[in-house]
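Kindly review this record before class:
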Amino acid sequence: MSETAYNPKSNRDPKPSFRNRLMKALKKFLMTVSIAYLIIVVALVLMENQMIYPAPKFPAGNWQPDFAHEDIEFSSADGVKIHAWLMQPTEDREIPRHVLYCHGNGENLSHACGHHGLEVIHNLGGNVMVFDYRGYGKSEGSPNEAGIKLDAERALDVFCDRFQIKPSEVILIGQSLGGAVATHLASTRGCKALILQRTFSSLPDVAASKYFWIPVRWLMQNDFNSAAAIEHYTGPLFQSHGEADTIVPIRFGEKIHEKTSHELSRFVRLPGIGHNDGFPQGYWQRIDNWLTEVESASE
């Protein structure tokens, strides 16, 4: 009887097929992509407040301006100390104007007063107060939606107490994020007139347009849904938005205006103007004329 010769190669595993190697490589790739995706999502969730609120603090900005102003400090409803500047005109108007200005997310009041605040005084007249949200400028704390709304509500109270007026006598102006803050005040406390500049319908709307591959509407903690809030405001609205705005595309501003119905509400498109560009010549005069129309209608 013959014996079969031992062949050590016969016990080796068969060489993997091309298809098996391809599947193994694909699984490894998908695992790597999934882990990287989760890391990015988690990082964005953890950094949400830092991304939305860059919050330039003191001493960033010009804190020794060449215009007269008064430093005001007050505590928000939860005890956080808030800082504001009050600027008053040198000439009195026949119909006094009182303006509470809410600045954008990338500036503090020293930036805002050095540009927009002075434009308001020079072109519209009246008393103007600009306040820093918590975490901005000299204000204490860290910014978040709930806290900023508390700061704005208290700022309005302080402003009204100073001049012995009601919220219905205050003109609210908001720039970008500040527009969402001003809309919150207008929808909950009322105002004489609301002026929104480059404002978004909601933070998730803007985020979803930039991070379409992330479920931001499920993940974001900050909302500032101005498109929903504006439905509770029944007064006149002047809204302007640059057609070349790539940070907050104009469609998000239009989404707010679609919810308004006041006969004196206006939406002004600014051709060629981006999110951080200056306003065109005649812009503030147009707002002044509109406010005069609002004031005449309320007499």
Q: What stands out?
A: The mean pLDDT is 91. The radius of gyration is 27 Å. The longest strand covers residues 81-87.
